[in-house]
Design goal:
This protein has five helices and six strands, in the order ααββββαββαα. The chain is of the alpha+beta class. A six-stranded antiparallel beta sheet has the order 1-2-3-4-6-5.
Length: 155
């Protein structure tokens, strides 16, 4: 239905739960000198990812806060995703929606930047996780899923 696939939701939750405050502070000091969209500075040379609905870039918000800017080719898909993120609300292991806009028929979502990396990359690199490391990742992930389900957000 164009919102977030279960895999994408899990990846966002897992990444948000492993954000390094030191890395976040470093990224907040960078200036991207990019395109301005709805008052946000988008660095289109720093693409974080892409998917079936659009691309994700590093952006700067107020107070030079580093954000992830998701550009959706279809504004309706962006509006649905924004609605889901607003429904989910605050949780320490879920990247928070800061803002969303429609510009030129495209939807833009500005979300808290999670800099911990991809869980799949971590698994490929290590080959396996020890019990303590797995617990550190999956306890917050399961808690975030429980939080989403309690608010009626399901895939």
């Amino acid at each position: 239905d164009g919102i977030l696939s279960p895999r994408t939701q899990l990846a966002q939750v897992a990444i948000a739960s492993s954000v390094s405050p030191t890395r976040r502070a470093h990224m907040a000091r960078r200036s991207c000198g990019g395109t301005i969209v709805a008052g946000y500075e988008i660095d289109k040379t720093d693409q974080l990812g892409f998917g079936g609905f659009g691309k994700v870039f590093v952006a700067r918000g107020e107070n030079n806060e580093a954000l992830a800017a998701k550009r959706c080719e279809d504004a309706a898909n962006a509006a649905k995703e924004a609605e889901v993120l607003q429904t989910v609300g605050a949780h320490p292991s879920i990247a928070q929606l800061r803002d969303h806009y429609e510009v030129g028929g495209r939807g833009w979502l500005f979300v808290e930047l999670a800099t911990g990396g991809e869980l799949t990359d971590r698994l490929v690199d290590s080959g396996r996780l020890g019990e303590a490391e797995a617990r550190e990742i999956f306890v917050p992930l399961v808690d975030a899923l429980r939080h989403c389900h309690a608010r009626g957000v399901r895939s």
